[in-house]
Amino acid sequence: xxxxxxxxxxxxxxxxxxxxxxxxxxxxxTRFGPGDPISVAMGQFRDPExxxxxxxxxxxxxxxxxxxxxxxxxxxxxxxxxxxxxQGYSVSEVIFPKMWVSAQLGLVALIITFGVGxxxxxxxxxKQGSWMDPAxxxxxxxxxxxxxxxxxxxxxxxxxxxxxxxxxxxxxGILSKHIVIPALALSLPGIAGVAxxxxxxxxxxxxxxxxxxxxxxxxxxxTVVSQHVxxxxxxxxxxxxxxxxxxxxxxxxxxxxxxxxxxIGRLAFESVTSRDYDVILGLTLVLATAFIVANIVIDIAxxxxxxxxxxxxxxxx
Amino acid sequence: MAExxxxxxxxxxxxxxxxxxxxxxxxxxLLRKKIAVLALAFxxxxxxxxxxxxLVAPRSYTAQDLDHVFQGPSLAHPLGTDSLGRxxxxxxxxxxxxxxxxxxATLVTGGLVLSVSLGLLAGYLGGKVDTAIMRVxxxxxxxxxxxxxxxxxxxxxxxxxEQAWIKTLQDWLRVDGLADYILIFGSLSLFAWxxxxxxxxxxxxxxxxxxxxxAARAMGASTWRVIFQHLLPNVSNIIIVxxxxxxxxxxxxxIALTWFGVGxxxxxxxxxxxxxxxxxxxxxxxxxxxLLVPGAVVAALIxxxxxxxDALTDVLTPRAR
Lengths: 317, 321
Prior knowledge:
Number of domains of chain B: 1
CATH architecture of chain B: Orthogonal Bundle
Shape of chain B: globular
CATH superfamily of chain B: MetI-like
Strand content of chain B: under 5%
Distance between the termini of chain B: 16 Å
Shape of chain A: flat
CATH topology of chain B: MetI-like fold
Order of helices and strands of chain A: HHHHHHHHHHHHH
Oligomer: heterodimer
Largest sheet of chain A: none
Order of helices and strands of chain B: HHHHHHHHHHHHHH
């Protein structure tokens, strides 16, 4: 475990700085554009005086850097601001319930992605050289290639409009039929990546001496694969979880909007169209924090799972 | 069987090695893969149609025929017509032109120029330059990509359109909606370089310590010479693999942005707008072909990019072979 502690410390020290930079860029972009939230909210027949008064109350007439300083000060005190389009609600009250919905949906999608991808990868590796290997990987590569913008409407067309098997949209918890289309739409694009990595690591493990030993002892093929091959080939899969999270989020953006699910993907969509600055910024900060923490946790977990991994100075990327 | 093929391959390479560059050899190996050739052929046809859209497309993408809306496939309109009676086939061909422009421009700026130069600099110079470049990369990596792209495109558009030089350039190039294209590929490039730069940097870190680089420097080669003559050729395979892997994502992101309404603006056709129009429940119920046609073309294109990327990885990275 030597060398891991300073590495984690360095990562933890960098994290707030990265977050600060991320928030500053996001802040500048939101303030830079035309059409501020007040004029969007007041609509076409706004009164210039009222507009100026509300802008002053919300501090939108101050210089950019002052606004940013006040914003960061409030964030450090746990106040992410107030939502402008959801009147009377604070940003945290808007974001966190929706995050819970997206997290549930994302978890189901992750389980499907890994639950399908890992066995497919192992099978492809075991059948290397036969037609089944490229055929299975290509099938899922095809699913990875179809944009969510196409898969969701096609699934709606087939399962809802033609076959009448599933309801159109909405959210009723993870145990209802409503989750089938969004969960499939979110998980299908990720399976190919998981299956490919699993195939590659399984092929590496199959060449190991201990696998030959296990076979030489006369163990059943199933035992060899499940106990000796799969368990060791699973190690590098932890690294792909971080990438899967990013894919999930981008997919959630469109899936939730298309199907009307009350998650953060749809919230992001709505807050951009209504120029709800503080919600956009809050989302950016919360998600960036989540990604940074997830990646550090994955790195740390990896050193515990596989003691061969050592972190050196150059490993900080 | 597979071993025999591999043996023939190596034999070919030994005999041909004297006449062909490593990249030339890799290309020959690529052409031996049937899937890769099919993918390449599809991409070639797509790019040809896109580049020569004015010649290939049977009609204009704006020509309306309000007497014949929502038509099924016919001789006059092989893929039918949309809600305004516009020829779907022509619109698909013109939309592919948008995809061609965006992918090529992003590939050259973000994929090639930014990622390669920053990756090379960070890896070779090390120290403060390395730290600075990689931390900036971390920041872009930390920003949620798609919402940021949408924000940038939504907020900066009016400012870019105002610029006089864009108008001049637009008249000169005769491309409609140039500001849209510039914003799209500019913002895409801003986020596209990080992954490539990281991979190139880590390779350069290893290559920097090799004896031939030491030898070159001992003989007095300048930094630029070492980078361009000695290091760049040795990472070219990684660059090609990385670029081919990112093509599908670039094409997909432009479509997503336009679907959202912040990318390419009508009347310039894009697959994003076509998918948006075809994806509403009502259109889907009555005229599913309006979604299925552009959807199939987009899926086929990204699938071809991914297959080609896979084949290139096989051919160009020695470890995977």
